[in-house]
Structure formats: C-alpha cells, structure tokens
Amino acid sequence: MTEKSLSSLGRMLSVLDLFSDKQLTWTAEAITEALQVSLPTGYRYVKMLVDAGLLQRAADSHYTLGARIVVLDHYIRMADPVLQHATPFMAELVEKTGFDCVISALYGQQVLDTHREFGKSPTTLSYGRGRPRPLFQGAAPKVILSCFSPAQLHKVFDQHGEDIARAGLPSDWPSFRKYYSGIRKAGHYFSNGELEADLAAVAAPMQKSDGTILGAISLVTTVQRMAVIDMPKLTQLLMRTAQEITSRIP
C-alpha cells in the first residue's frame, strides 16, 4: 500500500471521529466540509464506510455509526484479558457489598468504563461503556493518572491546563504532581459527589509490577449509602481484589 493510499485511508477513518454526544448524525456534505476534502472524495469515503458496515443511512440524508461497530465491540469484550479475569471478582464484590462494580481502562488519554456488574440497587451512571469520562474527575480516572510516571503526568499537565483548572485541581506542576502522588501512596481514591452529585465511588488501580496500567476497579453507590459504610474495610477489600485480578493477567 502506497504512502498516498495510507494517508487517504487515515482521512477516511477519521470520519468516525466526527461522531460524538453532541453530534450523532452527519450528512455527507458536512463530513466533506469537516475533513476539508472534495465533495466526490467525501462521498466516496461515506460509501466505503457504509459498505463496510461502519456507517449506516438514517433519515433526511444523514448517517449514523453502523451496526458493525456493535459486533466489533462484542469481540473486544471477548478478547479483553482484564475482563476475562476480572468479571468473577467483580461479581464477588457485588455480592459482598451490594454496590455496583465497574472496570475502567485508559485508551490514549481517554478513560472508558469497559464493564459493569450491577448491585442490588443499581445506580444510574451517566458514563457507561464507550462514553469517555472526564480525565480529572471521579475515582477511576484519578487512580489511573496516579500510576503515571512523572514524565507522563507532566505531559498530561501541559496538554490539559484548562480542564485541570475547571476540575479545581492544582494549577502549578509541583502541587499537581503532589496531589497525584498522594493518591498513589494511598492506593485508592474516594469520590463523593465529585462527578455526579448523588453518587459516591471508591477506586483502586490495577498496575503490574513493570508499570503497565491495566485500569481501575471501582465500587459505586449513592452518597447516602456510602456514608454509613466502614470505608477502611471497603478500601482494603477493593485493593486486595485489584491485586488479585492484576496477578492473574500475563
């Protein structure tokens, strides 16, 4: 495959990046304008993605993401080694606590929930599988970032100044680094109404001895229910479970 064709393939696949919570459908013309390509090229990209099942035709000449993505998501779940090993432990945590249990993972600089086991009184979470979570709010993203090396964390700090300030985190590097160092030393993070006003969560990181970050495991419930829980006992249970899962992944 030539360099030109690789470049064209990359532009075509970038059509998929246009879809978001804020814009779920696109016309071929709008896609062409967003990618700054010619109209024939834009129409060709759309046709090829429709033929591949990655886009599908909707009403009023609009396009949405296609059903093949759902199939691919199924294969992702089946092949995910973390989920293969974590699911039984998640079910055990749910049985012991009655809380929801969630696995989150880092993809690039996006934190995504990849699986959820429902407790006795399931909570309503705004961020489910596939919806990127705020990078600087909530228990799971914070314990994941706490596992970053100083160089990795500094890169995040340099790239996300506005998001960091919006989240109310320290705006200078030494304080920012100290904040996440504290989370790393604790081995967990407790979020009380931080991301969603009526929900609380405690998360522990899953990190291998070589530094590889597998993600985070969280227990989620209402602020009211979490307030009457023995937090030290709960965090120790969660941290042990995170270690058990991590130890089983090659």
Question: What key phrases describe this protein's structure?
Answer:
250 residues, alpha+beta, Arc Repressor Mutant, subunit A, Beta-Lactamase, 5-stranded antiparallel beta sheet, 11 helices, 8 strands
General description of the model:
By secondary structure, this protein is an alpha+beta fold. It has two domains: 3-70, Winged helix-like DNA-binding domain superfamily/Winged helix DNA-binding domain (Arc Repressor Mutant, subunit A), CATH 1.10.10.10; 80-247, 2-Layer Sandwich (Beta-Lactamase). It contains eleven helices and eight strands. It has helices spanning 3-13, 28-35, 39-51, 68-79, 81-97, 139-146, 150-159, 161-166, 173-186, 223-226, 231-247, and strands at 26-27, 55-57, 62-65, 100-107, 110-117, 189-192, 199-207, 213-222. It has a five-stranded antiparallel β-sheet with strand order 5-4-8-7-6. Strand 4 and strand 5 (110-117) form a beta hairpin. Helix 2 (28-35) packs across helix 3. It is globular. The two termini are 34 Å apart.
Give a short overview.
The protein is α+β, with helices and mostly antiparallel strands and 250 residues long. The protein has 11 helices and 8 strands.
Low-confidence stretches: none
Summed over residues and divided by their number, the pLDDT gives a mean of 93
Beginning-to-end CA distance, first to last residue? 34 Å
CATH architecture of the largest domain: 2-Layer Sandwich
List the helices and strands and how they pair.
Blueprint: H1 3-13, E1 26-27, H2 28-35, H3 39-51, E2 55-57, E3 62-65, H4 68-79, H5 81-97, E4 100-107, E5 110-117, H6 139-146, H7 150-159, H8 161-166, H9 173-186, E6 189-192, E7 199-207, E8 213-222, H10 223-226, H11 231-247
Antiparallel strand pairs: 1-3, 2-3, 4-5, 4-8, 6-7, 7-8
Helix pairs in contact: 2-3, 5-11, 6-9
